[in-house]
Amino acid sequence: MNGTIDKALALRKVSLFGGLQFEELAALGRIAQIREVPAGSLIFRQGEPGETLYVVLSGQVEIIREADQKEISVAKIGPSGYFGEFAILTNQPRTATARIIEHAVMLQIHKHHFRELLITHSSLTFEILRTMAERMSMDVRKAEER
């Protein structure tokens, strides 16, 4: 998978981008780079600056939060899943660590390019806001259950 059309078709399966028109998906595909990562690799650590959003094409990624010197697994992300969007939108440090648990092929989208795309494609901006609100709501519910 190297072509913009292949990337756009893969991005169409991602809930974050599901409401986008094909031309918007193609624009996103043009700025996305493919990255292959072996199992056991760290993508980023909690507390690091966030520069990239990731979309999983194959494999599996575990999202881990560190608290009180313990690692807590908060999510496992497989094909068509994504992660890293909070840090690139908020300029805050990464809120979790991302570790590859099964050899992965991912699309990575750099913060600068993604922000430019948000400016020109309002439907993408709306989808991002909706998804972030849903994730924050789920985090609050999970915290209340503990």
Blueprint of the fold:
Blueprint: H1 4-12, H2 22-31, E1 33-37, E2 42-44, E3 52-67, E4 70-77, E5 82-83, H3 85-90, E6 97-110, H4 111-120, H5 122-145
Antiparallel strand pairs: 1-6, 2-6, 3-4, 3-5, 3-6
- Major sheet details: 6 strands, antiparallel
CATH superfamily: Jelly Rolls
- The fraction of residues assigned to DSSP E strands is 25-35%
CATH architecture classification name: Sandwich
Shape, please? globular
Instruction: Return the CATH class.
Output: Mainly Beta
How many E strands? 6
Query: Into how many domains do the coordinates divide?
Result: 1
Question: Mind explaining what this structure looks like?
Answer:
- The chain is α+β, with helices and mostly antiparallel strands.
- The chain has one domain (33-112, 123-145): Jelly Rolls, CATH 2.60.120.10.
- 40% of the residues lie in helices and 33% in strands.
- The protein is built from five helices and six strands.
- The protein has helices spanning 4-12, 22-31, 85-90, 111-120, 122-145, and strands spanning 33-37, 42-44, 52-67, 70-77, 82-83, 97-110.
